[in-house]
Amino acid sequence: MAGFATIAALDEHSFVYGCLHDVAAAAPAAAPAASGGAVPAKLVEECKKAGEAVAAAKKSGASKDEIAAKVEKLLSLKKQITALDPTHSLAIVDKKKKAKAAPVEEKKGLSKREQKRLARGEDVKKKKKDKDPNRWAVDPAKAAAKAEKARLKALAKAEAEKADVKAIAPPTPKGDKKILAEQMSRTYNPGDVEAAWQDWWEKSGWYGCDEKKALKRPADEKFVMVIPPPNVTGSLHLGHALTAAIEDCLTRWHRMRGDATLYVPGTDHAGIATQSVVEKMLAKQSPPVSRHDLGREKFLEHVWAWKGQYGSRICTQLRRLGSSVDWSRERFTMDERCAKAVTEAFVRFHEAGIMYRASRLVNWSCALKSAISDLEVDHLELNGGELRTVPGHGATKYQFAMFTEFAYKVIGSDEEVVVATTRLETMLGDVAVAVHPKDPRYKHLHGKKLKHPFFPSRVVTVVTDDVLVDMDKGTGCVKVTPAHDPHDYDCGKRHALPFMTIFSLDGRVVTQCTPFSVTGAGDYPVEVFPSWIAGQMRYDARVLVEKKLDELGLLRGKSERPMTLAVCSRSGDIIEPLVQPQWFVDCTGPAKRACDAVRDGSLRIRPKMHERTWFKWLEDIRPWCISRQLWWGHRIPAWFAFRKGESRNNVDVDAERNKERWIVARSEAQALAQAQKLLGTKDVTLERDEDVLDTWFSSGLFPFSVFGWPDDTDEFKAFYPTQLLETGLDILFFWVARMVMMGLQLTDKLPFTDVYLHAMVRDKDGRKMSKSLGNVIDPLEVIDGCPLAQLVDKLKAGNLRASEVKRAEEAFKADFPEGMPRCGTDALRVGLLAYTVQGRDINLDIKRVVGYRSFCNKLWNAVRFMLGTFDDYKASENLWSTLKPLAGRDKFILSRLRRCVLDVNTCLTEYKFGEAVQAIYHFFLDDLCDVYVELVKPVMYDDDKKGKGRDAAKMVLWACLDAGLRLLHPLCPFVTEELWQRLPRTFAVSSIMVAPYPTPSEVDTFDNQEAERGTSLVLETVTGARSLRAQYSLANKPAHFHAVFSNDAERASILEGRKDDCSTLMRAASVSIGNNVTPPKGCGQKLVDDKLSVLVDLKGLVDADAEIKKLQKELKTVEPLVAKLEAKIKDARYLAKAPEKQRVQDREKLKSYGDKAAAARAAIKSWEEFKSGGGEEEEDDFWAEDDEDDPAAAAALEEAKAKAMAKLAKKEANQRSLSVHRLNCCDASRDASSMAWRCGLSPFDSSCATTISSRLTGCFVHRSKVYKGEHQPV
């Protein structure tokens, strides 16, 4: 270290003298003139020798420490000279002082370079080298070569431009069949490919289905499905896109199978959701406007305008997604036909006695002033003591999840009863305290009266209830507020307790309250609330009640307690359970029928695991509250009848005694006639109920209202019941169950026979799609791509609050820093369908969808290449009946096509869309492109191999493309139509969407297990050869390969027959195949299985030293990274402060670097063994022919074989890691991508490239075993 410091010091003083021999040698001549007798000549001489020593040490390659020691000695001598005479030529000169020294006098006539030489004391004029006078002359040969290169480049450019022009199609008139460009584009452009097809399909009438023809078809030859109508609250999101992809896939599949197919579109008015977004929009106007400012009619005009805007956008999105729906049958849940069905259903329910009006406990939103359904309630988990703002309460934050204990005094006693609650404000409505009947602590208090601290006249009764009370929890005493808690409500009914509504509809404490009973028992006086609490908002009242209890000495403690908080998903308001007069449907009977339908198999729910949820909800069903206090929706067809002189001012329309005066009818005229008959007078005034129906009421009628029910039309008879209902699993109860119950009640038929529930789409981090999180994505943004600025502008133009916009903007910038890439419809559809293999939830990463655009691109390029091999070939209409494969490779690919057809049909039948994607992907890219096309290239391009083999290959290739594209069409409709139309044929076709779907029976004759086993053997052998190429860095070098079998003449014979195929895939100079033969010396070896080895002749092909150097360089880069990460991870501060996510990432990095280092070391070892003779050693002589006449010799031979196999297995372990480093050779990168499915990996995930590479060797072996039926596809 001292030496390094010395060198640094020398450099600091610009002292290069001691390291340069010529400067040191010049010292003696300069010394006498500068010393003036002050510097001893001996010192100057020592300095000279020290300088020469430094120069000699550097020249001889001495170590740094030796050089540093000599430099240190030289520096010491220099310092002595400097101290004696600072002006001496050997003195150390400071840079700064040197810079300030007087400049050397310039001489005229010298260049700047010569002036610098003069200043340094060098010769001004350096001898110039003789230069060739013709050095600038142009070399004719080089000039000609350069000109030829430029000419070829220009020619290629012109050809490319010409091709591009031919690849540009003229515009297609709207609705006409697409005009295709003369040539296919060199690259896949989803925008160009998807243009015009949808308009043509729609105009051609293929989306429709004639009801008269459908009436003649049996149920098993029909496929009818209605879309889950999207809400008109806004645009479709990726969850809707998944729905559309699944449903359209099934629709196109059934249509191609020849079924009478109908897919009905529609939209839902979404009462509370749509009204909320329109109110938010009006509130953002300047000046802000509320619905009450506008009045009901004007407000509804705004809502209808919103529906017109977003309803049409939804239709546009569905068209862009390729949905093949019958647009002539499009329905909106508030159009005339649906409205008629809603009114009829309401009346029939009332006539059947299962619908009634009553005061019951409901979910109440004080912000919306309406009851809401359970689906519109979000449940938040709170840990305890959390602060939150509440709508309607300003900016104040209130504490939630706090358990507050307080005491009730026993009347006539000094005792008290302590209760606890997380909703302290509700004690204003307490009418009882419940204890367990078996709790010995309170047996003496059964039936006792307690004093309410704020209402002297109110008596709080001690009741016993073993349902409500768990005596092992808390104090064993539970306060009972029947009008503001579901459990207390049931308790109140069991004990005929009075109900006290303490909050108004907007969430304020009432000024007075009249207790009531839902059982009709009791007559209670009006209670007036104290002035200090009356009129206060709910959570302000909570604070005041706690303060008052503390003042009265009744507060007993407060602690944090985790709880679930119910919040309105539309307004963010905290739900208040409230007893309100509403319309209810008794679902007990219909729910039982719905359960029975699943049990007896007439209704099938897929996946089957969701049946448990079905029974859980329907076997314990509560009355369904169907009324909503909104303006947007179906107005309830019920009128209250007033006699002359009566009005709401003097008649309680909600009183139990007046319930019969609510008239339910199909029209106001019918209602008036019924009211006059009921009241016995003509002088009757009707007032219609202001409320509207729950959205799910009209949605529940959708499967039959769209076909004209209640009218018995041909349309209704032809298409109802439908075959399938496909939707998200989150609305199994809210929509699916209600459709089933309403269908059974109103039509006496199940509305569908099958229910398929797809998983929920979440973002890549598993979060729910939410506008406030900024992770809701419009499918068109994925299809067309979207700049980041546009994504942000869309957020700002919406109804989100400023804080939500900011959070969403940050999320977009993190996920899409360069904006949303353009993927196209086909990539989005197949990407979403591929995700369904995961199970319950789909954590969608858009980058995966981008990867499926690459799949479409590969498909495009593969078909483009294959079409180029057809020349003037055109398929005839009877191709399939005359198709006769000749070669083993032809039989193999047709057998694989048969298997793919069988697998895809099975997968679609069982709703296994992800597996269907994998099967088609595997066939196209692995079997067809990677194997068959590579095998037939020599046949297609080699003039010596023309004839029947080439003709058969063209027929087989055409057949595979035709069937493969038809298989893929339901998943990727646009690109398959475009490519299928380009297949050369002698007969006219219409569209792929009405072409017959490939069926197992169509290709059953192609089953050829022998050809598949033969190709499997070829692939296993090729895998071994490719591994050897990678291991020894042979890349595309012409290599000689040998496949050597041990006692396996049968497989050797099979491989001999496929030798040309092996040579093609290996890209070998030659291939030899033998059984029990001695391989040549100097070969690298790969053990394929216990009876097959592949060898490559390495003579003159490898440079072991160069490979070792590369690996050592890589190791030198990776090892410091490993050491740095290991130190970081062990650091105590890191362990204490680093977040878990960072620690996981660092551990993954360490493993990755460690694996690379280990692989490099193993590879170096393998190369060292090769250098020492391990790769060229003479093989054991166990390949010689068996000596059948000598049992001892045979036994010895078997023993030798066993030893050799063990030796090869050991060597294999060393070579495996080397293969990882060389997988980019010999098309291995393509193999890694195409075989990733077999490993269960995404072929497009760059982060798992190392994993793909390390597993590649096993991939080909696995695939070949799949062919033999030994393995199941992953």
UniProtKB/TrEMBL annotation:
<dbReference type="GO" id="GO:0005524">
    <property type="term" value="F:ATP binding"/>
</dbReference>
<feature type="domain" description="Methionyl/Valyl/Leucyl/Isoleucyl-tRNA synthetase anticodon-binding">
    <location>
        <begin position="890"/>
        <end position="1037"/>
    </location>
</feature>
<dbReference type="InterPro" id="IPR014729">
    <property type="entry name" value="Rossmann-like_a/b/a_fold"/>
</dbReference>
<dbReference type="InterPro" id="IPR009068">
    <property type="entry name" value="uS15_NS1_RNA-bd_sf"/>
</dbReference>
<feature type="domain" description="Aminoacyl-tRNA synthetase class Ia">
    <location>
        <begin position="197"/>
        <end position="845"/>
    </location>
</feature>
<dbReference type="GO" id="GO:0002161">
    <property type="term" value="F:aminoacyl-tRNA deacylase activity"/>
</dbReference>
<dbReference type="InterPro" id="IPR019499">
    <property type="entry name" value="Val-tRNA_synth_tRNA-bd"/>
</dbReference>
<dbReference type="InterPro" id="IPR009080">
    <property type="entry name" value="tRNAsynth_Ia_anticodon-bd"/>
</dbReference>
<dbReference type="Pfam" id="PF00133">
    <property type="entry name" value="tRNA-synt_1"/>
</dbReference>
<dbReference type="InterPro" id="IPR002303">
    <property type="entry name" value="Valyl-tRNA_ligase"/>
</dbReference>
<dbReference type="InterPro" id="IPR033705">
    <property type="entry name" value="Anticodon_Ia_Val"/>
</dbReference>
<protein>
    <recommendedName>
        <fullName>valine--tRNA ligase</fullName>
        <ecNumber>6.1.1.9</ecNumber>
    </recommendedName>
</protein>
<keyword id="KW-0547">Nucleotide-binding</keyword>
<dbReference type="InterPro" id="IPR037118">
    <property type="entry name" value="Val-tRNA_synth_C_sf"/>
</dbReference>
<keyword id="KW-0648">Protein biosynthesis</keyword>
<dbReference type="InterPro" id="IPR001412">
    <property type="entry name" value="aa-tRNA-synth_I_CS"/>
</dbReference>
<dbReference type="InterPro" id="IPR013155">
    <property type="entry name" value="M/V/L/I-tRNA-synth_anticd-bd"/>
</dbReference>
<keyword id="KW-0963">Cytoplasm</keyword>
<dbReference type="Pfam" id="PF08264">
    <property type="entry name" value="Anticodon_1"/>
</dbReference>
<dbReference type="InterPro" id="IPR010978">
    <property type="entry name" value="tRNA-bd_arm"/>
</dbReference>
<dbReference type="GO" id="GO:0004832">
    <property type="term" value="F:valine-tRNA ligase activity"/>
</dbReference>
<dbReference type="InterPro" id="IPR009008">
    <property type="entry name" value="Val/Leu/Ile-tRNA-synth_edit"/>
</dbReference>
<dbReference type="GO" id="GO:0005829">
    <property type="term" value="C:cytosol"/>
</dbReference>
<feature type="domain" description="Valyl-tRNA synthetase tRNA-binding arm">
    <location>
        <begin position="1103"/>
        <end position="1165"/>
    </location>
</feature>
<comment type="similarity">
    <text>Belongs to the class-I aminoacyl-tRNA synthetase family.</text>
</comment>
<dbReference type="GO" id="GO:0006438">
    <property type="term" value="P:valyl-tRNA aminoacylation"/>
</dbReference>
<feature type="compositionally biased region" description="Basic and acidic residues">
    <location>
        <begin position="103"/>
        <end position="134"/>
    </location>
</feature>
<dbReference type="InterPro" id="IPR002300">
    <property type="entry name" value="aa-tRNA-synth_Ia"/>
</dbReference>
<dbReference type="Pfam" id="PF10458">
    <property type="entry name" value="Val_tRNA-synt_C"/>
</dbReference>
<keyword id="KW-0436">Ligase</keyword>
<keyword id="KW-0030">Aminoacyl-tRNA synthetase</keyword>
<feature type="region of interest" description="Disordered">
    <location>
        <begin position="95"/>
        <end position="135"/>
    </location>
</feature>
<keyword id="KW-0067">ATP-binding</keyword>
